[in-house]
Specification:
Layout: H1 2-21, E1 38-45, E2 55-59, E3 63-66, E4 72-75, E5 82-89, E6 92-100, E7 106-108, E8 111-113, E9 118-130, E10 136-147, E11 159-164, E12 167-170, E13 172-177, E14 180-188, H2 189-193, H3 199-209, E15 213-219, E16 227-230, E17 239-242, E18 247-248, E19 253-258, E20 266-273, E21 276-284, E22 288-291, E23 298-307, E24 313-322
Parallel strand pairs: 1-7, 1-8, 9-24, 18-24
Antiparallel strand pairs: 1-4, 2-3, 2-5, 5-6, 9-10, 10-14, 11-12, 11-15, 13-14, 15-16, 17-19, 19-22, 20-21, 20-23, 23-24
């Protein structure tokens, strides 16, 4: 008898479990897509990856929700009504569609978003190079990072520009990794203002440019945010380079100079023969180095470059001869 009663109890619980999991079972969640009501779906990008954090808004009722880590969303909307659903995310173009919710209030609606490019990490540095003949070059080195949420290759569909003194300059394309690519510009002051042989004019241009804005933008750029940075001061170059003017250097020997900034800068020393770098050394806060390079007889150009903590550089060149 006890076995029979136990069997009946188990049978009843089994039937309840089956009924509770069946298609007509009641649900506490009104957005259950099987028995509750609701509009639900998944938001993906054009690469079929889900887009967590996308916001889905229903109008005209102005109800919204945020997609979960799987890109899923659900909205409690009244059946038998028409709505406009708009999906937005900072890294993607908005997507909208009109839906007619059936009378039972249940509808599945997926969305595909197309990624949009963005800019970050704008950087503006100055450079100065003093040549032995008295010529001085001044300019700007600019950099920013472009990002596309679906891969850096899609950045090739856009052009990146920097605007200085109301003139736009296309970027040089740099290295890329996953979603990002680096863009750079090397703008001599004579590119920005025009050609001149007057050193006083070049110096005046450098003073005038300090503090001016530099804008970075993407084209076509409808609804794409631009970024802005400002031109820093031009650094003073090292002076009194020795040896200079083609004097003889018997290696090993010492290269000397006077720093414009006493401390807090990185210093690079380079020895060139034509277009070939023959010797180099990186140090900091010194005014001389011992050059023990193995150099064949001939003429050489050597350079001292200082770089401050912000990345602004100032360099001077001189020449010597190995007898």
């Amino acid at each position: 008898m006890k076995k029979t009663n136990s069997f009946i109890v188990l049978l009843v619980f089994g039937m309840l479990a089956v009924l509770g999991c069946g298609p007509d079972a009641r649900r506490d969640n009104p957005l259950d897509p099987v028995n509750g009501r609701g509009v639900w779906g998944t938001v993906r990008n054009s690469k079929a990856s889900v887009v967590p954090g996308a916001v889905v808004t229903a109008r005209p009722v102005n109800i919204n929700t945020v997609c979960d880590a799987q890109g899923s969303y659900s909205l409690d909307l009244t059946g038998g009504e028409r709505y406009v659903l708009t999906v937005s995310h900072p890294q993607y173009w908005n997507a909208s569609d009109t839906i007619d919710v059936p009378s039972d209030g249940k509808l599945e609606k997926d969305f595909i978003l197309n990624g949009k490019p963005s800019l970050s990490l704008p950087k503006v540095n100055t450079y100065v190079i003093a040549h032995e003949n008295g010529q001085i070059n001044r300019g700007l080195k600019l950099e920013c990072v472009g990002t596309h949420p679906e891969g850096y290759v899609l950045l090739d569909d856009y052009l990146f520009y920097a605007m200085v003194e109301n003139k736009s300059y296309p970027a040089n394309v740099g290295s890329a990794f996953l979603l990002t690519r680096t863009y750079g510009w090397d703008l001599d002051l004579e590119i920005i203002y025009g050609i001149t042989s007057n050193p006083e004019t070049l110096a005046a241009w450098a003073i005038e440019l300090v503090g001016k804005p530099v804008s970075f933008s993407i084209e076509p750029g409808d609804d794409l945010a631009s970024l802005q940075s400002f031109v820093p001061l031009f650094s003073s170059v090292p002076t009194n380079l020795t040896p200079n003017n083609g004097t003889a250097l018997n290696l090993p020997d010492t290269l000397r100079w006077t720093n414009a900034i006493a401390s807090g800068v990185n210093i690079s020393i380079e020895v060139w023969q034509g277009m070939q770098l023959k010797w180099s050394l990186t140090t900091a806060d010194v005014a001389s180095v011992n050059c023990n390079a193995s150099l064949s007889p001939g003429g050489y150009t050597w350079l001292v470059r200082t770089t401050d903590s912000k990345g602004n550089t100032a360099a001077s060149e001189a020449t010597f001869v190995i007898p």
